[in-house]
Amino acid sequence: MASEACDVCERSVRIAGGIGDLWNFAFESTQGLTLELTDGSEFFLCFDCMERLPDDHEPTAEDVADLRERTDPVEEDGNHFWHWK
């Protein structure tokens, strides 16, 4: 199983696929994606953080930075809980 930290909430999320999933038969879905925004910036975001991006215009690096300022980092405690300001 591969994982990567969300660039906003810093939560480590699962990335499905890869050789590790062949050996442990993990069939869980991916929990985030790398987004290439219209301003050329690129971020890996979990699905919850993606949903919090503005939907009235194409998101930019400034929108991601604004979301990061409004989001408390998640401490990995196994509860999978997000803390929004």
Radius of gyration: 14 Å
The best one-word shape is globular
Q: Mind describing the biggest β-sheet? A: 2 strands, antiparallel
- Give the termini separation: 31 Å
Fraction in beta strands: 25-35%
Helical stretch count? 3
Question: Which structural class fits the helix and strand makeup?
Answer: alpha+beta
Mean pLDDT: 81
Quaternary arrangement of the chains shown?
single chain
The figure for the number of domains is 1
Strand order of the largest sheet: 1-2
Organism: Halorubrum coriense DSM 10284
InterPro entries: DUF7561
Region (Disordered): 62-85
Pfam family, one: DUF7561
How would you characterize this protein structure?
Residues 62-85 are annotated as: Disordered. It is a single chain. Strand 1 and strand 2 (12-15) form a beta hairpin. The strands form three sheets. Strands 1-2 form a two-stranded antiparallel sheet. A two-stranded antiparallel ribbon has the order 3-4. The chain has helices spanning 19-24, 47-51, 61-69, and strands at residues 2-5, 12-15, 32-36, 42-46, 71-72, 83-84. It is 24% helix and 26% strand.
